[in-house]
């Protein structure tokens, strides 16, 4: 079986940060996102700097701190895919989210 992970590699999938190089209109913007090949076929977000295609970043919502934005990625994207792609939710429908916790 072929190993798709490049070794050695830096793990990590979620990120939030400030653009320091690249397209001029993105410099100094706060960005966030998650997933893709980060931490698998390219070094991940546990690195100090990331080199990403512009399609792999989104403007960080102002309501989220950097810490919050860097920690919600996989959970958010998983929920979005489940609701929008798997369940094919449509505008006007109601979604009931049932959450359980111990402790």
Polypeptide structure, described:
With 103 residues, the protein is of the alpha+beta class. It has one domain (1-103): Quinone Oxidoreductase, Chain A, domain 1, CATH 3.90.180. The protein is 19% helix and 10% strand. The protein has 2 helices and 3 strands. Strands 1-2-3 form a 3-stranded antiparallel sheet. The model has no long low-confidence stretch (mean pLDDT 85).
> Kindly, what is the distance between the CA atoms of the first and last residues, rounded to a whole number of angstroms?
42 Å
* Average of per-residue pLDDT values: 85
For this structure, what is the CATH class? Alpha Beta
CATH architecture designation:
Alpha-Beta Complex
CATH topology: Quinone Oxidoreductase, Chain A, domain 1
The strand line-up of the biggest sheet is 1-2-3
Main sheet record:
3 strands, antiparallel
Spell out the helices and strands N to C: EEEHH
Please tally the helical runs, counting DSSP H or I stretches of 4 or more residues.
2
Q: Which structural class is indicated by helix and strand composition?
A: alpha+beta
Number of domains: 1
Helix content: 10-25%
Indicate the overall shape: globular
Radius of gyration: 16 Å
- Fourth CATH level, the homologous superfamily: Medium-chain alcohol dehydrogenases, catalytic domain
Strand content: 5-15%
How many DSSP E strands?
3
The parts where pLDDT drops under 50 for at least 5 residues are none
